[in-house]
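Translate structure to sequence.
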Protein backbone atom coordinates (compact mmCIF):
# COMPACT_ATOMS: atom_id res chain seq x y z
CA UNK A 1 0.00 0.00 0.00
CA UNK A 2 1.43 3.35 -0.97
CA UNK A 3 1.80 6.23 1.43
CA UNK A 4 -0.91 8.27 -0.32
CA UNK A 5 -3.35 5.33 -0.25
CA UNK A 6 -2.66 4.82 3.44
CA UNK A 7 -3.16 8.52 4.16
CA UNK A 8 -6.43 8.50 2.18
CA UNK A 9 -7.66 5.44 4.09
CA UNK A 10 -6.81 7.07 7.43
CA UNK A 11 -8.63 10.27 6.45
CA UNK A 12 -11.73 8.35 5.30
CA UNK A 13 -11.84 6.29 8.51
CA UNK A 14 -11.30 9.39 10.65
CA UNK A 15 -14.07 11.38 8.94
CA UNK A 16 -16.44 8.39 9.17
CA UNK A 17 -15.83 8.05 12.92
CA UNK A 18 -16.23 11.81 13.40
CA UNK A 19 -19.57 11.86 11.55
CA UNK A 20 -20.90 8.73 13.29
CA UNK A 21 -19.84 10.19 16.63
CA UNK A 22 -22.02 13.27 16.02
CA UNK A 23 -25.29 11.72 14.74
CA UNK A 24 -27.80 11.67 17.62
CA UNK A 25 -29.98 8.57 18.00
CA UNK A 26 -31.61 9.06 21.43
CA UNK A 27 -31.92 11.75 24.11
CA UNK A 28 -32.54 10.76 27.72
CA UNK A 29 -33.55 13.17 30.48
CA UNK A 30 -33.02 11.82 34.01
CA UNK A 31 -32.91 13.93 37.15
CA UNK A 32 -30.99 17.06 36.12
CA UNK A 33 -29.08 15.64 33.17
CA UNK A 34 -29.59 15.25 29.46
CA UNK A 35 -27.71 12.35 27.93
CA UNK A 36 -27.38 12.52 24.15
CA UNK A 37 -26.59 9.11 22.63
CA UNK A 38 -24.82 9.25 19.29
CA UNK A 39 -24.20 6.37 16.87
CA UNK A 40 -20.78 6.18 18.52
CA UNK A 41 -20.56 7.52 22.08
CA UNK A 42 -22.63 9.82 24.23
CA UNK A 43 -22.56 13.27 25.82
CA UNK A 44 -24.03 14.28 29.19
CA UNK A 45 -25.25 17.83 29.81
CA UNK A 46 -26.22 19.23 33.20
CA UNK A 47 -29.66 20.84 32.78
CA UNK A 48 -30.01 22.14 36.33
CA UNK A 49 -31.86 25.45 36.13
CA UNK A 50 -32.95 24.92 32.52
CA UNK A 51 -35.95 26.97 31.41
CA UNK A 52 -38.24 24.85 29.24
CA UNK A 53 -40.06 27.15 26.82
CA UNK A 54 -42.19 26.87 23.67
CA UNK A 55 -40.13 26.37 20.51
CA UNK A 56 -39.42 29.86 19.05
CA UNK A 57 -40.47 30.51 15.44
CA UNK A 58 -36.95 31.48 14.33
CA UNK A 59 -35.64 27.98 15.15
CA UNK A 60 -37.32 26.68 12.00
CA UNK A 61 -36.25 29.36 9.50
CA UNK A 62 -33.11 31.00 8.07
CA UNK A 63 -30.70 28.58 9.77
CA UNK A 64 -27.12 27.85 8.85
CA UNK A 65 -25.00 25.19 10.52
CA UNK A 66 -21.87 26.73 12.01
CA UNK A 67 -20.51 23.37 13.16
CA UNK A 68 -21.85 19.84 13.44
CA UNK A 69 -23.58 17.26 11.28
CA UNK A 70 -26.84 17.08 9.38
CA UNK A 71 -27.95 13.85 7.75
CA UNK A 72 -31.59 13.69 6.70
CA UNK A 73 -33.73 14.55 9.74
CA UNK A 74 -30.83 14.08 12.17
CA UNK A 75 -29.06 17.28 13.20
CA UNK A 76 -26.35 17.81 15.76
CA UNK A 77 -24.29 20.87 16.50
CA UNK A 78 -24.47 24.64 16.46
CA UNK A 79 -26.88 26.54 14.21
CA UNK A 80 -27.45 30.26 13.70
CA UNK A 81 -30.49 32.13 12.44
CA UNK A 82 -29.13 34.47 9.78
CA UNK A 83 -31.85 37.10 10.33
CA UNK A 84 -32.25 37.20 14.12
CA UNK A 85 -28.62 36.18 14.85
CA UNK A 86 -29.86 33.77 17.55
CA UNK A 87 -27.62 30.74 18.07
CA UNK A 88 -28.94 27.27 18.88
CA UNK A 89 -27.57 23.86 19.78
CA UNK A 90 -29.47 20.98 18.16
CA UNK A 91 -29.58 17.32 19.13
CA UNK A 92 -32.34 16.12 16.81
CA UNK A 93 -32.86 12.42 16.17
CA UNK A 94 -35.72 12.95 13.71
CA UNK A 95 -38.12 11.18 16.11
CA UNK A 96 -40.67 12.51 18.54
CA UNK A 97 -41.75 15.92 19.71
CA UNK A 98 -39.23 18.74 19.85
CA UNK A 99 -38.40 20.30 23.20
CA UNK A 100 -36.73 23.68 23.62
CA UNK A 101 -34.86 24.90 26.69
CA UNK A 102 -32.30 27.49 27.67
CA UNK A 103 -29.43 27.16 30.12
CA UNK A 104 -27.86 30.54 30.71
CA UNK A 105 -27.18 31.97 27.25
CA UNK A 106 -27.28 28.56 25.48
CA UNK A 107 -30.42 27.58 23.58
CA UNK A 108 -31.10 23.87 22.99
CA UNK A 109 -33.53 22.06 20.70
CA UNK A 110 -33.85 18.31 21.19
CA UNK A 111 -36.25 15.49 20.29
CA UNK A 112 -36.47 11.70 20.62
CA UNK A 113 -36.63 11.96 24.40
CA UNK A 114 -36.73 8.89 26.64
CA UNK A 115 -37.12 9.02 30.42
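Result:
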Amino acid sequence: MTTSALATAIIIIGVTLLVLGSIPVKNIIEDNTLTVHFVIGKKTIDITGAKFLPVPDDVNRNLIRTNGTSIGKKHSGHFKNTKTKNKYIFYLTGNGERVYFEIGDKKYLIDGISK
